[in-house]
């Protein structure tokens, strides 16, 4: 951590803002286009960005028309954004913000399963008082599933200990019905191979291990609304928990991975998304992703933050996004006071929920207590899931209205949260059973925050489940001896740039054309899926989340631009970028295949 902070501080000295702490990933930007996704203009921009600007497309979210790029080597984020903002096709461009969970509130105590079971048998009050306070025991006995399609709660966090007996014995972990485990194939075609129980966006793998413990604790709270997780035997869960890991073991993540997780959840059936994290940096792209969940009819639950501050005056995101399906949650004590650490806001925070010394699951079959709005939010998410159990077709924004309208009125929360009340799981779930279900939701127009800044030294609100921007303790860039470090770091870059300018440009042997076609990749006995973005008589650019080895031999089954036919051709991987884009050169291509490719490219645009 120290080394990373030192490097970030050194690089900050080069940036044009005198008080800039580098709180974003160097060399990466997120771009929103004005044109509609999938149009000729959007394809043309991506082609121009990759060819003329030498940017590398790392990720695209087609339904939002958002694109994540690595900028030209040696180019700063500032200069890249300045140039992109001059492009008539660009609506906005922003950095890929770093978000980091602070560690000043962690687990207070850790208990073994035996200790928890003994406490539950002897005295419910020792740890069930909070749950009883919101009427959860009533939910256990009254909530029943009327559908085999159990509601999915996406936990966007640090992962989940999927081997914890509470989740395995209750069958609570989400399983993707369209994915065959361990076959190395993206069976459902969603871009993720073997995503049987969710996805790890940190390591780009299907393994959701929790090397922090936060996500496991949050998930247990959600399940505690479904049943008593502190006693045995456990019941068959009426909900499913979809773990989506975007924060690593140090609690560090990025905007791009948060968006990937949200986009995955929305597109793979999650009706409730729990977000026990946040920060003070506004991101238009993240705002876009939250708004996308609204179009899917989901509920977006967000922790209000742990700085004890007013979100009306100092915003916390994603809690402060004004999307109709967002419910921001403050933390309350066992006596229904606002917790001293909890953020609040009569305009921006909707509801209070228990968040002090909350018992829940921790990794390695243990239990523990922790405090924070991170713990308050999943009580709300779990209650929302039980509303979906009883009313499967209810939309997220209506669930928000029920949670806000059927709460426990608390004088101490008046003027602190919008509803003036604390979560009442029993009343909300009971009301939902007979409530008329709205057939449609109100239109929503996303309005971007006008005063977005490229970088800021404002730290995110502190506490468990919140995030902050990276940087030094005082936010000032280093000077003095740092200049020597900077020179040492960037001297090789200057030499490389000089050499590149002196190196003659090598002409391509074959002209490349833009194409958007599906491809099946056979390699090492596995069959993978992907897409082809450029094609020539000599090879293709393949985009896939699977890992392909440089120099490795592959066989490609490429669809024509209209999808009417396929060609099969062998080749080998000649370059890769970010393990997502690969160049494949054809090997000994039959003339008949070359003729078909030539016919395809007659109607395609040149890639430059």
Topology (SSEs and partners):
Blueprint: H1 2-12, E1 24-33, H2 40-51, E2 56-61, E3 66-70, H3 77-85, E4 90-101, E5 107-112, H4 113-122, H5 125-133, H6 136-142, E6 152-157, H7 165-170, E7 199-200, H8 214-224, E8 240-245, E9 252-254, H9 255-267, E10 270-275, H10 284-295, E11 299-303, E12 326-332, E13 351-354, E14 358-362, E15 366-370, H11 373-390, H12 396-405, E16 408-409, E17 421-422, H13 425-434, E18 467-468, H14 482-502, E19 513-523, E20 526-535, E21 539-543, E22 553-559, E23 566-577, E24 581-586, H15 591-601
Parallel strand pairs: 6-8, 6-10, 7-8, 10-11, 11-12, 12-13
Antiparallel strand pairs: 1-3, 1-4, 2-3, 4-9, 4-18, 5-15, 14-15, 16-17, 19-20, 19-22, 20-21, 21-24, 22-23, 23-24
Describe the structure.
This protein has helices spanning 2-12, 40-51, 77-85, 113-122, 125-133, 136-142, 165-170, 214-224, 255-267, 284-295, 373-390, 396-405, 425-434, 482-502, 591-601, and strands at residues 24-33, 56-61, 66-70, 90-101, 107-112, 152-157, 199-200, 240-245, 252-254, 270-275, 299-303, 326-332, 351-354, 358-362, 366-370, 408-409, 421-422, 467-468, 513-523, 526-535, 539-543, 553-559, 566-577, 581-586. Helix content is 28%, strand content 24%. The protein has 3 domains: 1-20 and 476-503, no CATH class; 107-434, Rossmann fold; 513-601, Beta Barrel (Thrombin, subunit H), CATH 2.40.10.220. It has 15 helices and 24 strands. The radius of gyration is 26 Å and the shape is globular. The model is unreliable at 1-21 and 455-507 (pLDDT under 50). Helix 6 (136-142) packs parallel to helix 13 (425-434) and helix 8 (214-224) packs across helix 11 (373-390). The strands form 5 sheets. It has a 7-stranded parallel β-sheet with strand order 7-8-6-10-11-12-13, sandwiched between helices. Strands 1, 2, 3, 4, 9 and 18 form a 6-stranded antiparallel β-sheet that branches. The protein has 608 residues and is α+β, with helices and mostly antiparallel strands.
